[in-house]
Amino acid sequence: MIGRLNHVAIVVPDLAAAALMYETALGATVTPPKALPEHGVTTVFVELPNTKIELLHPLGDDSTIQKFLDNNPSGGMHHVCYEVEDIHAAIAHLVGQGARVLGDGQPKPGAHGLPVVFLHPKDFCGTLVELEEVKAA
């Protein structure tokens, strides 16, 4: 059911400094910042040959990312994102297996404009999992 690893998301206390570190120290290509008010974050993607790193920073004080940063002032890994071909079929399968979809359980547009959902970390070995629908080429 799951496809390739799309990205690993890391919460950072200073988005510009983190992006600059990936660009200068590691020589990576970093996308411009993009605000996602519906998710309460500003994000940039570090593009790698086989996947991406998503750097997240809170957008507003009520952002769940801000709560994460309050508990982890230096930042840290937030979630992993896996690709699926049919997000509705994936949700139905996972719910049937006892997994919990966060929020209202319905896909919402993610940072790439594609449908995403998040799965409860208690159901996946303590790791927050994001699924992103990506149609097969």
Can you summarize this structure?
By secondary structure, the chain is α+β, with helices and mostly antiparallel strands.
Structure characterization notes:
It is built from three helices and nine strands, in the order βαββββαβαβββ. With 137 residues, it is of the alpha+beta class. It has a single domain (5-133), classed as 2,3-Dihydroxybiphenyl 1,2-Dioxygenase, domain 1 (Roll). The longest helix has 10 residues, at 15-24. The radius of gyration is 15 Å and the shape is globular. The mean pLDDT is 95.
Describe the structure using short key phrases.
137 residues, alpha+beta, nine-stranded mixed sheet, 2,3-Dihydroxybiphenyl 1,2-Dioxygenase, domain 1
Task: Describe how the helices and strands are arranged.
Layout: E1 5-11, H1 15-24, E2 29-30, E3 34-36, E4 41-47, E5 52-58, H2 64-71, E6 76-84, H3 87-96, E7 108-109, E8 115-119, E9 128-133
Q: How many H/I helices?
A: 3
* Broad shape: globular
Radius of gyration over C-alpha positions, nearest whole angstrom: 15 Å
CATH topology: 2,3-Dihydroxybiphenyl 1,2-Dioxygenase, domain 1
Number of strands: 9
Largest sheet: 9 strands, mixed
Percent of residues in helices: 10-25%
- How many domains make up the coordinates? 1
Give the averaged pLDDT, no decimals. 95
What structural class do helix, strand and pairing data support? alpha+beta
Question: Which percent range describes the beta-strand content?
Answer: 35-45%
CATH class call: Alpha Beta
CATH superfamily: 2,3-Dihydroxybiphenyl 1,2-Dioxygenase, domain 1
Distance N to C terminus: 16 Å
What's the helix-strand series?
Answer: EHEEEEHEHEEE
CATH architectural group:
Roll
